[in-house]
Amino acid sequence: MASPSVSLLARSTIYPIHPVTSHDTPAADSAPARAIVTFLTPAERQRVDALGQGSYTTVHRESFDDVMRDLRTKPVSAILLSVSRYQHHHATQVARMVREFPRVPAVALLTGNEARTTQALLALGQQGVQALVDAREPAGWRDLRQFVQREGTTTIEAIAIRRIRADLTGANNDCLRFFDALFLAPRSLTTVRQLARNLGVVPTTFMSRFFRARIPAPKKYLAAARLVRAARLLENPGHSLTQVAFLLEYSSPQSFSRHVMHSLQCGAAEFRKRYSGEAMLEHMRQHLILPYQQQLIDFVPVEVTPQWISRPSAESGPASAVMPLVSASA
Questions:
Q1: Can you tell me the distance from the alpha carbon of 231 to that of 103, in angstroms, rounded to the nearest whole number?
Q2: Which of 20, 23, 46, 118 gets the highest tally of CB atoms within 10 A of its CB?
Q3: Is 81 helix (H, G, I), strand (E, B) or coil?
Q4: Beta strands in the chain (DSSP E)
Q5: Can you identify the CATH homologous superfamily of domain 4-152?
Q6: E strand or H helix at 282, and its extent?
Q7: In CATH, what is the architecture of 156-298?
């Protein structure tokens, strides 16, 4: 475990207080700016806001009760804590925050030299804060921006997209677009009809293409992707089953439990014990992707070709002589 007092002498401006493990945060809507909840001084807020334009959004809070409320009810990518603002009486609240939301990285921000700086750093490290950004020099602010961007590549959504793309090497962009959409779609997108419209294809046409290709129905892929997100959220002890149900736009906790039972033949409490986000992703791959790998590589689920466009074949001569091959239901 690195000592903060030693770290303060290091030339690098961002480094771990403890050995850093990978922390994933749930993504919000499609390609959103990442949301960071802060507990900062007014001067630090201005600098963080200016730096975050186009990279992340900030939600500034005056108390740790407010920070905890955000963690329970909103998608949060990281928590930024001011070393200058930290006081001894915050210790219990910081420890609880880190313990209940281990998948949301907590970062200490150092912007000045004060008599109590070393003590505050030691205390934050003892409470479980795992990273420190030293912003006493301009390079530190750049490092903060890079840290947030790097965390974005370790979300369960980003991991899922990378692994599925590796499984479907050689697949056309149309198929990959479908799988990307499963994990980049807003949490409010909960039905196949919404997904089809989001992709720009008629829902009935979209669903029939899966049937004709002998691939599981799209609702199974959407259901599995939602459970991957749910499993990742439930890795945080601070999230209850009820909170996760509402975060993922299920109509009720009972609806979420029924969804889990129908998909996995286990209750919601057992689901939480059995599946991490990555374990649920592996289940999705083993049951819905790898057994249908070749069909998926050749699959075109989204392409929309108007009736009046002809598709020439190798045996049919000029395109103008070819009759339309796509009917209204294709």
A1: 12
A2: 23
A3: strand
A4: 14-16, 34-39, 56-60, 78-82, 106-110, 131-134
A5: Response regulator (3.40.50.2300)
A6: helix 277-284
A7: Orthogonal Bundle (1.10)
Q: Give the model confidence (pLDDT) of 72-95 as tens digits.
A: 988 888 999 999 999 999 999 999
Residue with tokens 């209750």: 267
DSSP per position, 188-237: T--SHHHHHHHHTS-HHHHHHHHHHTT---HHHHHHHHHHHHHHHHTTST
Q: Which of 93-107, 208-222, 305-319 has the lowest mean pLDDT?
A: 305-319
Q: In what order do the strands lie in the sheet with 56-60?
A: 14-16, 131-134, 106-110, 78-82, 34-39, 56-60
Q: What is the pLDDT of residue 18?
A: 37
Amino acid occupying residue 194? Q
User: Is 107 in a helix, a strand, or coil?
Assistant: strand
Pairwise CA distance, residues 308 & 306, whole Å: 6
Burial code (b: 16+ CB inside 10 Å, e: under 16) for 280-311 equals: bbebbbeebbeebeeebeebebbeeeeeeebe
Mean pLDDT across the chain: 82
The domain locations on the chain are 4-152, 156-298
What CA–CA distance (Å, rounded) separates 24 from 181?
Answer: 19
Residues in the chain: 330
Residue holding tokens 């994933």?
Answer: 24
Q: Give the three-state DSSP class for 12.
A: coil
Amino acid at 319: A
Tell me the per-residue pLDDT of 19-53, one tens digit each, with 9 for 90 and over.
Answer: 333 333 333 333 344 689 999 999 999 989 888 77
Q: How far is it, in rounded angstroms, from Cα 36 to Cα 216?
A: 38
The answer to whether 127 and 99 are in contact (CB under 8 A) is: no
* Run of H or E including 266: none
